[in-house]
Amino acid sequence: MNLQPIDMLKKYFGYSSFRKGQEKIIQSILNNKDTFAIMPTGGGKSICYQIPALSMEGITIVISPLISLMKDQVDTLRENGVNASFINSSLSSREVNEVILGAVSGHCKILYVAPERLEQDYFKNTVKSLNISMVAVDEAHCVSQWGHDFRVSYKRIAPFIESLSKRPVVCAFTATATPKVKNDIIELLNLKNPECFTTGFDRENLFFSVIRNENKLDFILRYISKNKNNSGIIYAATRKEVDSIYEKLLRKGYSVGRYHAGLSDDERTKNQEAFVYDDIKIIIATNAFGMGIDKSNVRFVIHHNMPKNMESYYQEAGRAGRDGENSECILLFGGQDIHIQKFLIQQSIPSYERQRIELQKLNSMIEYCRTTSCLRKYILNYFGEEYKLENCSNCSNCINDSELVDITVEAQKILSCVYRMNQNYGITLISEVLKGSKNQRVLSFRFNTLSTYGIMSEYKIKDIVDLINALIAEQYLTLTETEYPVVKLTEKSYDVLKGTKKVMRKIIIVKEQSITEDKTLFEQLKELRKELAYSEKVPPYIIFSDAVLTEMCKYYPTNKEVMLNLKGIGEKKYEKYGDKFEALIKAYVAENNIVANSIPLTTHHEVSSKSKTHMVTFELYKSGLSVSKIAENRKLSPKTIQDHLLKCAEEGLGVDLDSFIPEEYSELIYEKIRTLGTAKLRPIKEALPEDVDYMAIKAAICKCQLNKNVS
Ligand code: ADP
Ligand code: MG
Ligand code: ZN
Q1: pLDDT above 70: residue 600
Q2: 616 lines ligand 1 (CB under 6 A)
Q3: What percent of the chain has pLDDT over 70?
Q4: What is the pLDDT confidence band of residue 653, given thresholds at 50, 70 and 90?
Q5: What pLDDT, on the 0 to 100 scale, is given for residue 694?
Q6: pLDDT at 604 (0 to 100)
Q7: Where are the beta strands (DSSP E) in 23-166?
Q8: Does residue 393's CB lie within 6 angstroms of at least one atom of ligand 1?
Q9: Probe residue for ligand 1, chosen from 64, 173, 294 as the CB with the greatest number of ligand atoms within 8 Å
Q10: Residues 6+ apart with CB under 8 A from 302
Q11: Domain-located, residue 384
């Protein structure tokens, strides 16, 4: 009997609904169309070719660039009861032969190969006897010189496919969306009239924050002291910084490892494995780290330094929360970061033209660090996507995660000291003067005679440095871009000195990133998972993802029916591990007198409404509250609530759009929409009577679009 894709999703992977785009992509492949899909990191690309592979006759060959990724995928598939294998340089020739035999005998459904294999005659000849129904190219951007991980052997893929006696359906997957790379992929892989899908780049479960005014190390320490049990990555710009953060955290007794190019291969592999296997919780790394890992339970990614562009940032930050559970991406921004990145660009790129491009990209990155509006919207706009909401309720600019402290007096002291030192020195010397240091340089310049000498003697030097950096970040001061950066006053400085402007400093409130209410059970389940992972020799998240454990902590499943209803438990997994987890939960429930929540019935297209803020609004709306009441209730602006309701309407939920469109003007509104188009709202607004508000226009546009989709 032929299972439908949705049933396979449940049977093999244990999920009961597809993520955005997956179903259409799968359908396109099953219709035998070449297919090209762009989805963000963690978006769920693998399933898009694995499910068709299972329903097609014959074998699927997956080209994948990294040995560790292949192993990870094959482990995952085997755990789910799918017969999959890989061929790469980590196998002996005997092992390779065994895999090939398995393929020829028709046992193996999915075969992962490294692109280099396609150059070997032996491989090419044996493969000719296989019934290949599909070739899936993962990380397809590797074929393009414009992508960041160009691999020469990816160019072998197209000729390899042409050499087969029957052309299989070909599909390609990537998270890189620049037009150049897109075109290269289609052309160089020789895709035939491909169906192209872009699912959108939003990762709703990620909380984005930029932290500007804090001492970076202090912040990291505060953060991880609250998040001891979570897995996380801390990226730093240089080896030296990695080492220094690593040593500090190690000394404080945290479970940490490090990763950078200065370590031996052995040590790097060892540290990476320890992280993947949850033996250490936190890894501190340069950006060389992460390419080869699909660890799904990374709960936070902290950038100790601003990366060079948004592409790198989103890729690195995107390693958080692949399992779909709430996770945090934190960028620590300091004035020095700009200086370092500019310097690196100027030093490392000889071509003037390329420098210019890189500097432009850097500027967008800096703007991200400085913007006060929604970070999610900024990211999505950067990648060419429209984000309809003004407030995502899930980034540091959309929710208030800080308290404000008045530092006007300190700022005045610092600014006047800079002024008295003729705006001619760096941060350290200024701090020493304010502190009242007797060091040689201070004395030799006779700064001890200034009226600002020692006026902050009660502070530690480090805290004065922090304050200066905070003022730089907020542009009350600026640093020159010279080899030895000098601190200068800005226009904003004078208002502070005159006493007409207050300076407030944001102090971030650090929270625990917790994905479950029942932490005790969660930790016990993690322990059990780890034991099983050891005996199975696979990483813990391959046994069950954090998302599955979270579900267990919510529904306390103690029988097969409930277990199989949880998202992420397929039949094979249940057979293998179900009883062990049931036993643990039974004991825990008995011991703590817990009455289990009943599990909601799942429908195929159910969207998890858990973390979706517009759904919270929708619930209130359904209960009859007005927009202003909902806004009050949720401490959000009425405009945000309206945006939420529009999103609900777009998703086909019952929102009465007409109630937002004043009847007497509705004809007129529709007419203006027709004649002026919907690219810009302002011209429409200006063409209408003043009492027609933006919401009326947006609601009308939304209605038009919904009608279009129906007809
Ligand atoms: P990508 O290759 O796009 O970065 P993966 O294929 O590695 O992403 O998938 C990321 C995670 O999402 C995996 O843990 C996977 O099991 C999970 N996942 C994929 N599809 C679904 C789905 N429909 N429902 C829930 N989780 C899913
Ligand atoms: Mg992938
Ligand atoms: Zn936001």
Answers
A1: no
A2: no
A3: 97
A4: confident
A5: 87
A6: 37
A7: 35-38, 59-63, 84-87, 110-113, 132-137
A8: no
A9: 294
A10: 220, 223, 232, 233, 234, 235, 330, 331, 332
A11: yes
What Cα–Cα distance (Å) separates residue 271 from each residue in 253, 319, 540, 589? 17, 17, 16, 37
Q: What is the mean pLDDT of residues 687-710?
A: 83
The rounded distance, in Å, linking the Cα atoms of 403 and 313 is 27
Judge if the beta carbon of residue 396 lies within 6 A of ligand 1. Answer: no
H or E element at residue 475? none
Query: Domain containing 674: what range?
Result: 611-710
Q: Which atom of ligand 1 is nearest to the CA of 175?
A: 3
Render pLDDT for 390-434 as a digit per residue (tens, 0 to 9): 889 999 999 887 778 899 999 999 999 999 999 999 999 999 999
- Polymer length of the chain: 711
Across the range 668-676, mean pLDDT stands at 87
Q: Is residue 514 part of a domain?
A: no
Number of domains in the chain: 5
Do 620 and 476 lie in one domain? The reply is no
* Residues 6+ positions from 430 with CB-CB distance below 8 Å: 414, 417, 418, 421, 464, 468, 487
Judging by DSSP bridges, how do beta strands 402-406 and 504-508 pair with one another? antiparallel
Measuring CA to CA, how many Å separate 581 from each of 77, 533, 573, 587?
Answer: 21, 13, 11, 10
* Residue 208 DSSP label: E
Q: What is the dihedral of CA 65, 69, 75, 78, to 10 degrees?
A: -40
In order of 37, 39, 194, the CA distances from 48 in angstroms are 9, 11, 15
Backbone torsions φ then ψ of 355, nearest 5 degrees: -55, -45
User: Within this chain, do residues 502 and 564 fall inside the same structural domain, yes or no?
Assistant: no
CATH number of the domain enclosing 482? 1.10.10.10
209 C-beta closer than 6 A to ligand 1: no
Q: Are residues 218 and 351 in the same domain?
A: yes
H helix or E strand, kind and range, residue 256:
strand 256-259
Side chain identity, residue 628? S
Q: What is the pLDDT of residue 709?
A: 56
Last residue of a domain, one of 508, 540, 557: 508
The SS3 of residue 344 is helix
Residues with CB under 5 A from ligand 2 (ion): 45
Ligand nearest 387 Cα, by number?
A: 3
Q: Is position 513 within any domain?
A: no
Asked whether residue 368 falls in the same domain as residue 284, the answer is: yes
**161 and 238 fall within a common domain:** no
Atom 12 in ligand 1: residue holding the nearest Cα: 44
Pair 224, 284 in one domain = yes
Q: How many whole angstroms from 489 Cα to the centroid of ligand 1?
A: 50
In the chain, % helix, strand, coil (3-state, to 5) comes to: 50, 10, 40
Q: Is the pLDDT of residue 245 over 80?
A: yes
Angle at 300 between CA 258 and CA 318, to 5 degrees: 95
Residue 275: give its domain's CATH number: 3.40.50.300
CATH number at residue 572: 1.10.150.80
Angle between helices 216-226 and 239-251 (to 10 degrees): 50
pLDDT band at 147 (very low <50, low <70, confident <90, very high): low
Residue ending a domain, among 147, 166, 198, is: 198
Q: Is the pLDDT of residue 640 over 90?
A: no
Residue 203, pLDDT score: 92
Q: What is the pLDDT of residue 148?
A: 65
pLDDT in tens, 381-392: 998 888 988 889
Q: Is the CB of 324 under 6 A from ligand 1?
A: yes
Q: Are residues 485 and 583 in the same domain?
A: no
